[in-house]
Description:
Largest sheet: 6 strands, parallel
Number of strands: 9
Amino acid sequence: MDGPIDLHCHILPGIDDGARDIADAVEMARQAERDGIRVICATPHIRSDHDVRIAELPERLAALTGAVERAGCRTLLLGGGEVAETIAAELSGAELGAVSLGGGGRWILLEPAPGPLGDTLSGAVDALAGRGFRSVIAHPERHAGVDLRSRLARLVEAGALVQATGAALTDTASQPAMLELARAGLIHVLGSDSHSAAAGRPVALSAALQILAAVAPIAADTDWVMSIPRAIVRGSDVTPPFPASP
C-alpha cells in the first residue's frame, strides 16, 4: 500500500452523484495513477437523498475493480462510504462496518449537515464512538462558521480526525483559510472528493500533500501525513502527533 491514499472519492459509477459510468470511473482511476495515488477508498453518499444500498456495494466495487484491472490501471480500490451525520444512527453496526474506510471496520467518513458545524455533529461523533467507531470529519471547508476552529478542536478532542479536500489547499481563494486550519493542527488527512474525471475536482492529491507537508506542525512529522491513511484503512487507532488549537 505504498503511495498516497485517497480517502474520499465518489468513483463507484451510477450510484450517487459521482462517476457517471464505468468509463468515467476507470478514467478517474487512471487520473489517480497519474498523480501517484496508489489507493482509492470508494465512498458513495450514504444519506437519504441517494438510493445507495449498502448490501450491493461489494458487488459494485468488485465489478469496477475488474474494469480497472482490465484497463491496465494499477490503482487499488477499497470500500467505504460518506455517511451523513443525519443517518448514522439509523445504520446497524454491520452496515457501519461495511462502509467503514477501507473496510477496516473502525473509521467512518462522516459528512456534516449543510451549513456551519453544529451540536448534532458532535452528538453523531459521540454516538459512533459509543458503538466502537471513530469518525473522520469530511470537508470542513464547506462548513465555515465563526466557530469552525473551536468546533473542530472539540471534535478532535473527542477522538475525531479531520479530512480536508485536496483542491481546497491548491485553490488560491480557499488556500489561506485551509492553511490556517492546518497551522492549528486541524487537518489530518486529505481526500480528493472527486465525482468525475470529466469535470470538477480531479482525483489528485500530490500538490496538496506537498503544501500540507510544509506547514507546521505537520512539517515536523511529514511521514505522518502519509502513514495515517494507511492506519485508517487497516482499522487501527490513530493519535495525532500534534495538538489541535481552537
